[in-house]
Design brief:
Oligomer: single chain
CATH architecture of the largest domain: Alpha-Beta Barrel
InterPro entries: Biofilm_reg_signaling (IPR052155), EAL_dom (IPR001633), EAL_sf (IPR035919), FHA_dom (IPR000253), GGDEF_dom (IPR000160), Nucleotide_cyclase (IPR029787), Rev_trsase/Diguanyl_cyclase (IPR043128), SMAD_FHA_dom_sf (IPR008984)
Strand order of the largest sheet: 25-26-28-29-30-31-32-33
Shape: elongated
CATH topology of the largest domain: TIM Barrel
Protein name: GGDEF
Helix content: 25-40%
Pfam families: EAL, FHA, GGDEF
Strand content: 25-35%
CATH class of the largest domain: Alpha Beta
Number of domains: 5
Number of strands: 33
Distance between the termini: 97 Å
Largest sheet: 8 strands, mixed, barrel
């Protein structure tokens, strides 16, 4: 604490087993302890002989500015036995501040104050309680006094000249309070400042009623109800709560001030967290919901259209899982900034949660306005995001609901915009869709199927069918592909086109994929025990499963549990899944190959199909996508594509399997292109385990 010698004095109020007394600090240093030779003696058995040292410290080159520091032990480095407990914390040294309390023992403490030199120490003297009629109020605690000091009054009238009521008032002032206390009379003259007020508001005596603390107090004199006024005062970056008491009997206005800056800042932070997302700085769903209700009221009153837009990032989870949450968080922040640049000034964007965002268009002229917004967003996302050294191409799916046709309340509009979002995903992502009433029934069906799928996994009512792969050179089964099936009594056989996306959309895809992997390996091992020639079993890996960081460990554990040789397991992965993170995919595939597992590139020809990628990824098999086979005709363009894929695979010494072969004509054309392996209905549909076993026994 920096102080001016001419304005303030430093005092210690000592309370121990002997008495309560005051010491005015004026010397450069003081020894404190139990022995009588100390400058300040503390009467308490647990206090050390030389317990502490108080030294004056000059805090600036000016000779009239200083503070006091208390040090544990003496100046020779000898520490006390019990240490110094200052404001509840053990400390070796501490720069004393107004109001500090130092505990020396159970019955010994010292309090430090800075008081105005205008304060007469007589105010700390013992007062005869019979002199004053103060009821239940305590006037002042007993203290030992110094002499020859001035009055605490601004006008410096002597204490002896004060009448009894003035003495009571002065004695009740908490001169030792760390909070500012200020008093003026009804004409605006300053009559009292405690030390805390002098230190805090150094210009108040010059500015007087122009100072923010005093401004307006006189004008409120006849306006307040009762005698108390509470207000907040802002001075620079600080905020004070001011309790103003109008004491008509004494013609005085007394103010008690409390610094509430920290509290206000905390309230502001809490309010921000209540309505804003701390990661993206966008409004959160609470803010969005409130403004949606306001917009609905205005739309109803003004009979205008409005819209709710729901969107999320396609494949964000894969980025988050493979590159880490820091990269994912930075991507969300960058996406939020781009999204903000696409909307109008009065539109409201919020981060709904995770990678989901909503946009409120409180007034639109027609649905075309939402189409323009969706197209701006999709166009803006064509440019990649640069995040932590990674170039990320991000796509989004967008669902749109219009008021009043798609809902007349906020909950319905949000639900229908969400349904439209998922319909956009079904179309292949990176699209926008408007809500239609048919979506609700389909969404309800999907929700029901999702719940039933959970039950199916728990009750083990899922099954695998096996589709054989035929080697055309020797007419033998060269492998089996395991395909997931689900039969439900109410819905019958659920199409794989619904089942797989449904599992992908939920967290079930991971446990389901693990069940498929283990079941297929057990089945292959069972065929070997029956004496059949060993053939590889192919299992499709979902994109989510492929992005698991512990995938290789999972595969290794399944092989160990089922005792299947690694080269008899063929994991099928799509080009799209591998391309989501090239470096991570290459490392995973390399580790799988080192394990001995075969790797097939599924649906080859529909994605990147780059020669460079075949060099990078250690795959063992190419599977020609069935879309090329289904339109295969003599002299067609697909014939050239298939021929090129077969030649490419053979040049890399890879197996090449044509999927979806259904007719004799397709078979003959493929044989003419030197295709050696096929899979499809022409040879066999997917078979139940018993039927697959029968087939293997026949061929």
């Amino acid at each position: 604490m920096m102080d001016n010698l001419s304005s303030f004095r430093h005092i210690l109020v000592i309370e121990d087993q002997k008495a309560r007394r005051i010491v005015a600090l004026e010397e450069a240093s003081y020894s404190v302890g139990r022995e009588s030779t100390n400058d300040i003696v503390i009467y308490e058995q647990v206090v050390s002989r030389r317990h502490a040292t108080i030294v004056r410290v000059r805090l600036s080159p000016r000779l009239d500015t200083y503070s006091y520091r208390i040090i544990d032990g003496d100046l020779e480095g000898n520490r006390s036995t019990n240490g110094l407990l200052i404001n509840g914390k053990l400390q070796q040294s501490h720069n004393l501040k107004h109001g500090d309390v130092v505990i020396f023992g159970p019955k010994a403490k010292v309090s430090y104050y800075i008081i105005s030199t205008a304060l007469d120490i007589d105010l700390f003297n013992p007062l005869d309680p019979e002199q004053f009629e103060v009821g239940e109020e305590t006037v002042m605690e007993t203290m030992i006094a110094d002499d020859n000091n001035n009055s605490t009054l601004i006008n410096e009238e002597s204490l002896q000249a004060r009448d009894r009521n003035d003495l009571i008032r002065l004695a009740s002032f908490p001169e030792l309070s760390p909070n500012p206390i200020i008093e003026i009379d009804f004409t605006g003259n300053l009559t009292y400042l405690n030390p805390a007020a002098r230190i805090k508001f150094q210009s108040i005596e010059q500015e007087k009623l122009k100072h923010p603390i005093l401004a307006g107090l006189l004008s409120e004199l006849h306006n307040i109800q009762g005698n108390l006024l509470l207000r907040e005062v802002v001075i620079g970056s600080e905020i004070f709560e001011q309790y103003v008491h109008y004491l008509s009997e004494h013609q005085l206005i007394r103010s008690y001030l409390f610094d509430i800056t920290a509290r206000k800042q905390a309230e502001k932070r809490l309010e921000y967290r209540a309505f804003y997302d701390t990661l993206t700085d966008l409004p959160n769903r609470n803010y969005f919901d409130e403004n949606l209700e306001i917009a609905l009221v205005k739309a109803k009153n003004n009979n205008n259209l409005m819209a709710v837009v729901f969107l999320d990032l396609d494949c964000f989870k894969n980025i988050n899982d493979s590159l880490g949450h820091k990269v994912g968080d930075q991507l969300l922040k960058s996406f939020a900034q781009r999204l903000s640049s696409c909307v109008r000034n009065n539109d409201i964007i919020s981060r709904w949660g995770g990678d989901e965002f909503t946009v409120l268009l409180p007034q639109i002229n027609s649905p075309e306005d939402t189409i323009n917004l969706a197209q701006r967003i999709l166009e803006d996302l064509k440019q990649p995001f640069e995040v932590a050294g990674h170039q990320l191409y991000v796509k989004t799916s967008i669902g749109i609901a219009i008021y009043p046709q798609d809902g007349e309340d906020g909950e319905t509009l949000l639900k229908n915009a969400d349904a439209a979002l998922y319909r956009a995903k079904e179309r292949g992502r990176n699209h926008y869709r408007f809500y239609s009433s048919t979506m609700t029934s389909k969404a309800s069906l999907l929700l029901k199927l999702e719940n039933l799928l959970y039950q199916a996994l728990e009750e083990e009512s899922l099954s695998l069918h096996y589709q054989p792969q035929l080697n055309l050179t020797n007419n033998k089964v060269s492998g089996m592909e395991a395909l997931l099936r689900w039969y439900h009594p109410e819905f019958g056989n659920v199409s794989p086109l619904k089942l797989i996306p449904l599992a992908e959309k939920t967290d079930l895809i991971i446990p389901i994929s693990l069940w498929v992997l283990k079941t297929a390996c057990l089945q292959n091992k069972a065929w070997q025990k029956r004496g059949f020639s060993p053939i590889p079993i192919a299992v499709n890996l979902s994109p989510k499963q492929f992005q698991q960081p512990n995938l290789v460990d999972i595969v290794a554990q399944v092989l160990e549990d089922t005792a299947l040789e690694p080269h008899l397991l063929d994991l099928e992965i799509t080009e799209t899944a591998m391309m989501q993170n090239i470096d991570s995919s290459r490392e995973t595939l390399q580790n799988l190959r080192e394990l001995g597992v075969q790797v097939s590139l599924d649906d080859f020809g529909t994605g990147y199909s780059s020669l460079g990628y075949l060099q990078k990824f250690p795959v063992t098999t190419l599977k020609i996508d069935q879309s090329f086979i289904q339109t295969l005709q003599a002299n067609s363009g697909n014939t050239a594509i298939i021929s090129a894929i077969i030649a490419l695979g053979q040049s890399f010494d890879l197996r090449v399997i044509a999927e979806g072969v259904e007719t004799l004509q397709q078979l003959e054309l493929l044989q003419g292109l030197n295709c050696r392996e096929i899979q499809g209905f022409w040879f066999s549909r997917p078979l139940k385990p018993t039927d697959a076993t029968t087939l293997l026994s026949q061929v």
